[in-house]
Design brief:
Blueprint (H helix, E strand, L loop, with lengths): L5 E3 L4 E6 L4 E4 L4 E8 L2 E6 L2 E5 L29 H8 L17 E8 L5 E7 L9 H12 L5 E8 L12 H7 L3
Parallel strand pairs: 8-9
Antiparallel strand pairs: 1-4, 2-3, 2-6, 4-5, 5-6, 7-8
């Protein structure tokens, strides 16, 4: 690890324990080492284990809070959400232990946008995990939901974890396999 990756928390922060998925509070003054910067979130090591700090709390480790890379104006929110923007947001979601996004890992099975009766659009995502016992599943799904709902035109997002078909390595994209050194 480089000196640049070692930080001291500037304030208390909620963090997710890896791989169990429990939300815990890390106190101000805790020494952390950043091991991954993935999708705007940070995986850090402490003397008490590994945690994921959400991008919205990046300031506590001296990092900039990530800004959306699309038009967030009111005009952009009129009409259905841009499908490419939704997929782009899903590509910013990572299992904190694997340096490949959930789309290239082949974890996202479907994404659809449906118009709501009361107006706006709801995005429905079906995804799986690399292993059924992954305690981070709910955190990964919530990360996906929170990123999708940022897309203009999305008034609600629902991410469901499904197990059929079972995930296998053949579902990883070519780009993901290259990142993992599988090809």
């Amino acid at each position: 690890m480089t000196e640049d990756s070692e930080r001291i928390l500037s304030r208390d922060v909620k963090a997710t324990l890896i791989p169990h998925g429990e939300l815990m509070e890390l106190p101000e003054g805790t020494r952390v080492t950043i091991t991954h910067r993935l999708g705007g979130n940070y995986t850090v090591m402490t003397e008490n284990g590994m945690f994921r700090i959400g991008g919205e709390d990046a300031d506590c480790i001296g990092e900039d809070v990530e800004k959306p890379d699309f038009d967030t104006s009111a005009e952009a929110a009129d009409g259905p959400p841009d499908t490419d923007a939704v997929w782009s947001q899903l590509k910013k979601v990572f299992d904190p232990e694997i340096p490949v996004n959930i789309v290239d890992l082949g974890l996202v099975y479907s994404m659809e946008s449906v118009e709501k009766d009361e107006g706006g659009y709801k995005v429905l995502v079906a995804m799986t995990l690399t292993a059924p016992g992954c305690g981070m599943g709910p955190s990964i799904a919530e990360d996906a939901r929170s990123k999708v709902v940022q897309v203009p035109g999305v008034s609600e997002a629902q991410v469901d974890i499904v197990w059929d078909p079972p995930w296998n390595q053949d579902m990883i994209s070519e780009e993901g396999k290259m990142e993992l050194g599988l090809i």
